[in-house]
Every structure is written in C-alpha cells, then in structure tokens.
Specification:
With 485 residues, the protein is α/β, with parallel strands linked by helices. The protein is built from 15 helices and 26 strands. The structure holds ligand UAG, adenosine-5'-triphosphate (ATP), 2,6-diaminopimelic acid (API) and magnesium ion (MG). This is UDP-N-acetylmuramoyl-L-alanyl-D-glutamate--2,6-diaminopimelate ligase.
Length: 485
Amino acid sequence: MKSLKDILSQVEIKSIKGSAEIDIIQVSFDSRDIVKGALYVAQKGLLFDGHTFIDEVISKGAVAIVCQEFPKEILDHITYVLVQNSQRALAIIASNFYGNPSRKLKLVGVTGTNGKTTVATQLYNLFQLDGKKSGLISTISIKIGKEVFGTTHTTPDSITINKSLAKMVEEDVEYCFMEVSSHGIHQSRTAGLVFEGGIFTNLTHDHLDYHKTFSEYRDVKKRFFDELPKEAFALTNADDKNGMVMLQNTNANQYTYALKTVADFKGKILENQFSGLVLSIDGQELYTKLIGEFNAYNLLAIYGAAILLGIEKIEVLRLISMLKNVDGRFQYTISPKGVIAIVDYAHTPDALKNVLETINSIRTNNENVITVVGCGGDRDKEKRPKMASIATQLSNQVILTSDNPRTEDPVEILKDMEQGVAPEHYKKYVTITDRFQAIKTACQMAEENDIILIAGKGHETYQILGKTKIDFDDFKIAKELLNQS
Ligand SMILES: CC(=O)N[C@H]1[C@@H](OP(=O)(O)OP(=O)(O)OC[C@H]2O[C@@H](n3ccc(=O)[nH]c3=O)[C@H](O)[C@@H]2O)O[C@H](CO)[C@@H](O)[C@@H]1O[C@H](C)C(=O)N[C@@H](C)C(=O)N[C@H](CCC(=O)O)C(=O)O
Ligand SMILES: Nc1ncnc2c1ncn2[C@@H]1O[C@H](COP(=O)(O)OP(=O)(O)OP(=O)(O)O)[C@@H](O)[C@H]1O
Ligand SMILES: N[C@H](CCC[C@H](N)C(=O)O)C(=O)O
Ligand SMILES: [Mg+2]
C-alpha cells in the first residue's frame, strides 16, 4: 500500500480533482483485473480506449483514475488525475509504486532487431557463472536468480517490469539484463527506468506494420539511447549502418564493438565451423560453441558489456567459452542416419539470411539444405515475400508453411510469401499449411548428412491458430520424427 501523493511523484500532472492523500492498494491498466482500492490508468490502445471502462472500474472498487480526458461525470469519492500521456504516467507510477527498483540494481537494456534475447540471456548466464546474482527479462522468460517465470512479451508492460525488478531487489539480485523492444519504447513501457547501460545489436527489417517506416522504427530505437543517464554506458555495433546513429544524441558514455571497423572492443573471426567459432578478441584467442558471424557480434557485445560492468578481461573470456546455445537459437539434433535438424528463431529476413549463410558456410560435404519456414499472422506483411525469397535463394528445397497464423487465414499468408519466390526457384518449393506435416515432409525428404532448418518459432512450445493456442514444439517434433526414420 502507498499514498497516491507518493505514487504521483515525477508524473507530469495537468490537473487533479479530488484528494491525493489516499491509500492505493494496486495499480492496474486493465479493468478485468481491478481490486478494491485500486488506481486505474486509462490508456488509449489500438483496440480499446481504456477511458470507456472508468465506470466499470469504479463499480469494482477503484478509488483513483489517471486519464487523458476527464469523464463527464465526476464522483466526489474518487480522485481523478489528468495527464498528457497515460502510458508514460503509468510507467512512472509503476516505478514509484514498487519503490523505484531499477535504481537499486544495475539494469542493462539490450535493443536492436535481432540478437536481443541472445545477448541478454548470455549476459545473465555469464554473470550467474561468475557468482553474481542476476536477473533476466526476455522473450523466453523472466529469471530471478535461478527462479524462472513465463512471459507474454519481449518487453513486458511497465507494471510487470517494475514488479519483477522489485522482486529481484528483494532477493539481492545485483544485475538485471532486459530486452528493450521497439514496441516497449514506443509504448513507454521502459519510461522512468534507470539504466546502468544500453546495448545496440543491429537494425534491419521488422515491425513495419506498427512503425510504418524504417526511419520511424530507427528513431524509436534511438530514443532509448537518447534517454540514458549520463553515468550509463551506451555500447553500439559500429559495423551496423545505424550503429553510430543510436549514439548521436545520447548523454551516456559511448563505446563501440566491431569485427570490421575500428572499435573499442574489436574482434576477428579465426574459424567458423559447425563445432563453434574461434575468435580473436583484443589480441586474445577464444573458443565458443556458438556458431556464425552474427554470434561473433553478439559475443563482442557481451564481452564489452561485461568489461564495462567491471569483470576482468581474462575472466570474461573464460566465462564466454563456457556459454551454451540459448534455447531455439541454432538448437540442433542429429538423427541416427546423420540428418541434422536445426531449430532457429529466425523470424526476420536478416535473421533468416544470416542463419542460412552460416549453414552454407559451415557445411562440409554436398549436403542438401531443406528449409521449413513461415511468417506470423497479425504481424508485418512486408517481410513475408522477403523471407520466402531468401529461403529459396539459399536452400536446395523449401517448404513454406505456417508460423503463428493468429487471426489471419494461413493460406493468404502463404500467398504473400510466394510472391517473393523468383521464377527460377519455382521448382524448389512447396507449400504445406500444416506445420507438423511440413516438418514431417522435410524429415522424410532428408538423406544422410542433409541439413534441415526449421525457422521462425525457435523456443516457442505453442502455435497460435486463430485465438487458440495449441501445444507445438518444433525441436521436440523434429527429434521424434528423425528418430523414427
Ligand atoms: C500492438 C501492441 O503492442 N499492443 C499492446 C497494447 O495493446 P493495445 O494498444 O491494443 O491495447 P488495447 O487492447 O486496445 O487496450 C487499451 C487499454 O484498455 C484496457 N482494457 C482493454 C479491454 C478491457 O476489457 N479492459 C481494459 O481495461 C487495456 O488493458 C489497455 O490498457 O498494450 C497491451 C497492454 O500492455 C499489450 O498487451 C499489447 O500487446 C499485444 C498483445 C502484442 O501482441 N504486442 C506485440 C506486438 C509486442 O508488444 N511485441 C513486442 C516486440 C516483439 C519482438 O520483436 O520481440 C514485445 O515487446 O513483445
Ligand atoms: N546479432 C544478430 N544479427 C542477426 N541475426 C541474429 C543475431 N543474433 C541472432 N540472430 C538471429 O535472429 C534470431 C533471433 O535471435 P534473438 O532471439 O536473440 O533475437 P531477438 O532480438 O531477441 O528477437 P525478438 O525481437 O523476437 O525478441 C536467431 O535465432 C538468429 O537466427
Ligand atoms: N516477438 C516477435 C516474435 C515473432 C515470432 C514469430 N514466431 C511470430 O509469431 O510471428 C513478434 O511478436 O513479432
Ligand atoms: Mg527476444
């Protein structure tokens, strides 16, 4: 319980009706989740206007309302707080309500199109291995020390973030690594958090359904660095076209990592094989089980951040060599007859291109590469033809299938994808709407030493068909099918 007055500290208030000297039991932005004594923050969303639920939340016992417009009827026993931007106000309120936990640990945010989960998770793993109690907020899960919690978003809403951080503080967690998605920044889910550092991985095509243009998408990502405190570090990929753009207006201390250009943390790939990478970082040789150039970038980001957070260089290199693959990121199994199946979360054109180029660069014989891939429904349509084009260019056989169709017609999604296949590749691909059948067909087609790439769903253990979620695990399915053949 906290007083409304304290909770509103630092919130830009336009006007207030009623008393701020009242106790608040719960902060919520959802009418379906209100308890007696709650503060309800009304947000204008894409599907609903939270202001339309004000009567309902009051009848359920809410005692205070934060809103962008006062309702027509003002009740004496309720406090109404008018703000310019409810989403931003919510984030600051959530921070205050949970005791501003981000100031009590070292919080590092990772942003970029691809590699956020990998970098954040491996930093968490590395710090845990080093004996430092750590936390993780990522697409796959929220971890507090060794405890694991489920997530629904890459960057959760600001209440979930602050509640999780507060639990971390309670459990003496010293470092927290979190993914910062562009939706998260745009919807102010991360506003009011105090970061110790920010890491940029790369910027390529994704989410143009939401951000409309690439420059809007880039500017949203940049905003995260613009708002970092001056004591923080801002670590960027200097080889990425937009890497230096991220630092243009930041007050934070600037650092770079790169494989190609001059950088503070400079690496070189010595060997890139199926068994792993051999890298030279700052003149020291390093072996890692992680595969592919893109992982060399991820590891450089991890190396730089770990050093900036105070771990000795030689210790960082030792810990990096102990890291295993993150679930659903180049996770592979080899069948008794020698077929390799790789499950990877590549759900953007760039990720798919990187993974297929990596597979092509490390294959030793004349194996066939068979790719099974789909694109999510209710998401960016522009990436669909691009992903089909990349898959057919860089594989010997392609099965276009469903990812999470959500509320879209799977057949229509496949038609969008097919638009990207060049006529010379028409013979290379088939469409099989049912993802299980698609994986089964790939397993039946594969001969000794062939490589099957199952892309797009990685660690996900479900498939979303319409509004229904069914159990579905690419890795488990491929493993079982290959062991039967
Ligand atoms: C497009 C998007 O990001 N939408 C997010 C947004 O929903 P919205 O704007 O549609 O909200 P809305 O449903 O219209 O509701 C408006 C307000 O009314 C409230 N409401 C609504 C109904 C009701 O009965 N009562 C009620 O109070 C809602 O709680 C909300 O406060 O705010 C919601 C509450 O925080 C989020 O759950 C929701 O995420 C949706 C489910 C989603 O799928 N988001 C994805 C695209 C996303 O955020 N992805 C990113 C990046 C992924 C990546 O690349 O890694 C992520 O960080 O996960
Ligand atoms: N640095 C990188 N550059 C390009 N592609 C990468 C990089 N790291 C990983 N990938 C590819 O992108 C996929 C997703 O990686 P990861 O889950 O780490 O990214 P993410 O940014 O967390 O994605 P999301 O936006 O869904 O949270 C991987 O399975 C791999 O194919
Ligand atoms: N966090 C990303 C992941 C997409 C993964 C893919 N399997 C899909 O469902 O489209 C998103 O919500 O856009
Ligand atoms: Mg992620």
